[in-house]
Amino acid sequence: MKVGVNHLKKIAAIYDIHGNNFALQAVLREIREENADVVVVGGDVVWGPQPREVMETLMQDRAGFFYIMGNADREVVHRHSTEDGCPDFVAEMNAWCADQLTKNQVNFLKQLPESKRLSVEGLGNILFIHGSPRSDEEAIRVQTEESKIEEMIKDTREDIIVCGHTHIQFDRSVAGKRIVNAGSVGLQSKANGACWPLSDESFF
Known about the structure:
Structural class: alpha/beta
Number of helices: 6
Number of strands: 9
Shape: globular
Distance between the termini: 23 Å
Helix content: 25-40%
Strand order of the largest sheet: 4-5-6-8-7
Largest sheet: 5 strands, mixed
Number of domains: 1
CATH superfamily: Metallo-dependent phosphatases
CATH topology: Purple Acid Phosphatase, chain A, domain 2
CATH architecture: 4-Layer Sandwich
């Protein structure tokens, strides 16, 4: 994995792994074959069946990896419960996932930022967020009305926004900005197999 960030040509975006280490390892093999410069891990990493294994895989070699926090990561590491408004199943899953993680893994997740900005040669500046620029719980969907998206992105300076959260890939333009949903590595919706985009000059 290349680690310089001044002249990036290929950025792999892997979102919504959701504790699926088998899918993560398969995707990382594909990314190595594509020779990506860096990888952005777009949140919702551990809420799923293999939280510790996923973190072990990701933390084996962090060079060239950037991470942002997803709403599910926050709920796990802070052990959100029914008192925080979570349904019973979600609260139980939050507690179970937190119990599987090591102290170092929890501390790593707690300090993750909400966004990452990178520049790709031939594409320009890209904003990576989990949900929307306003909230990691706010979903931008393929069917979301343009007026609602315009309100979500009105303070965003970057021309390209990469998001996740909904687990459904799409690529659309709103208010002069390209919005790409990365899909999901580990908990796909309306897709066969793990989804992830590679941002390079042929991306659009």
